[in-house]
Amino acid sequence: MIELLRNTSHVHLLLNHVPTTAFVVALVLYIVSLFNGSDALKKAGLAMFFLIAAVTIATYTSGSAAEAWLRGTSPKPEFPVNVVPAAIREHEDAALWATALMELTGFFSWLALWQWKSVKRLPAWNTPLVLVLSLLSFVAMSRTAYLGGHIHHVEIRPDVVDRHNACLALVDQEVKHPGSVPNAPENCSWQAAVDEIKTAPDAATDAAGAAAPNMARQLGDFVIGHTWMWPTLETLHFVGLCMLFTVVLIVNLRLLGFIKIVPVSAVYQMLPIGMIGFAVNLVTGMLFFVGIPSQYNANPVFYWKIVFVLLGGLNVMYFMLVDDAWRTTSGRDVSAGPRIAAASAIFIWVAVLYCGHMLPFIGNAF
Amino acid sequence: MMGLLQSIESSGFSQWVKQSGSLWAFPGILLLHTYGMAVLVGVIAGIDLRILGLMPAVPLAPLRKLMPLVWGAFWVNAVTGTMLLAADATSKMRNLDFGVKMAFIVLAVIAQRAIQTRVFGDPDLDRQPFSSNAKMLAAASLACWLGAITAGRLLAYVGNPGGL
Prior knowledge:
The complex is a heterodimer of chains A (366) and B (164). Chain A has 366 residues and is mainly α. Chain A folds into 3 domains: 1-152; 159-212, no CATH class; 214-366, no CATH class. Helices cover 72% and strands 0% of the residues of chain A. Chain A is built from 14 helices and no strands. Chain A has helices at residues 2-6, 8-15, 18-36, 39-71, 85-119, 126-152, 158-176, 190-199, 215-225, 229-255, 264-267, 271-291, 300-321, 336-358. Chain A is elongated. Helices cover 70% and strands 0% of the residues of chain B. The longest helix of chain B is centred in the N-terminal third of the chain and has 26 residues, at 26-51. Chain B is elongated. In chain B, 33% of the residues are buried. The mean pLDDT of chain B is 91. Classes of the chains: A mainly alpha (366), B mainly alpha (164). At the A-B interface, helix 10, helix 11 and helix 14 of A face helix 3 and helix 7 of B.
């Protein structure tokens, strides 16, 4: 089991069901709640949107690792015989859009849960916004899954199916009217169609065998092609880190009882600062990732960083779904559960920072 | 001056930091420097944003208790920063960006001390709105820490061996 989880390609195949299948469940819960007015269902839907958005980060990054594994390390990529490289590039572009939409859905779902507790009701714009974003995410993610299926299941690619059907039609015609098709093929198979596609000159490939850059690669080239870009992103990443730590420290120290005079309901107001800090770091972090994926997708420290980010997401959702702790007034202690979660939160974000810092020293990033 | 910097840079300690390859050397010291920054700027930024009007329900007076944490983090960074400087003294001391970073930190510390005496020392703290002076100090503090982080981050990219 552990060995399987060390294989990032396997992890991708495992996780890619979450933003698709699990998301359908979340979407159904959310839409039903809009009709029957159930707060519990709506909260469940919003919480699932948030958690799925967290898993989507790991799904995207593990996908890049799976691509690197398929491509191999030789300068001229050598993909397995039934893999069409163009399918990977299409899938990656679709995934980038879908991930962006999914993260927006997650952010506004979290905001809805936060506003629910602080202002007791949702502002009118949030519910339709989350509905639109989640529907768009669903469409974009379904398209990503469809295109992802083509990477290994070449037999269901539309062009393969078309050629196969055309071949069958020729054979059929020859059977009905012998002699009418001089060069009728003897047998039709998807493998023959794939061979035909793979041997046809690829307009998107240059003489050195390099593919034309897809959208994800163009974005990556923009990031690494401008000298000001990387330092700017690094600086923003550090500012986001400080915003996140502002909240992680003050809120969790209060929950642990260090500044007990401050009511917990008051520090609740700080949470959006931390979430915005995380959003800044997610965007800048993803730009680093698409800039030079090879620095991260075979980097064990990055793997652990993503694991801790996922744990951080779970930790946040625990705090969004407990109510009692946030009602704690001045001078009072919170119960054991939230205290353990608060200590875990500090540990998790210290670990995320550790992994991020060690990317170049233990792993291979710079 | 250059001779002194060179002898610092060639000391056993500096060589260990720079060239030992140990995770406890450059990576570990820089890690502590980053944790120090997260705690120092994190907590101060929270207080500054509170003074500027965000999170109005949070009473400020009890946050005074966090000051030992803030100054602890400051001294961690002063010590680790000095270690990192010793390892690279000749080029850092000639790097304009390093001077900019130090200037921002000096100004930020001045602003922080002023906030501690004027805002936290105010007996009416949390009972009346903040004066525009307090808000100016908070804004200046935020801007200086932002400047220090930016200049510090850029140290990894801008070298100026040609001299200041």
